[in-house]
Amino acid sequence: MGRVMPHDPIAEQAVLGSMLLAGSWVIGKVSGMVQADDFYGAGHPALYRELLAIHESGKPPTLPMLLSTAGDRIEEMGGMAYVAELADSRATTEDVEHYARIVADKALLRNLILRAGEIQDLAYEADDAIETAQQAEALIFEATAEIHREGHVGGEPVKTGYRDLDALMGP
Fold it and tell me: Which of 88, 146, 154, 170 has minimal CB crowding within 10 Å?
């Protein structure tokens, strides 16, 4: 039996519900913290993309506007009943940044898991250990580069145990 990838449906629902409740104010807070692909729940990436598109068009990202612009695509977002439930969830907008950080953190964990699988495949197929280690370093660097740009992890570089990679990432 396979493991379920890290995700937090409550955090995802809180972010999306807050976006529907407070619109542009919340979108301004979370759009730099999370991307559509950071959402794991079925329909959540599509819903996030649609709300951003509405916001960027200068229209209010409200439930009626979403239903109007999404049309049949609302089914990709979980359906009309689910989206209406999110809008009525009474999500607290004051904690939206906290929930957005959880969504981003879970996405990072999923990315690390995927990279670890790629590294494992590289190692099994490798002829050159040094070249393989360098490829592994690059994969980890790709996975963690965004957290350093955004000042996550307290602004301190993540120690990987690979000297070359640590030197690239650290002060």
Answer: 154
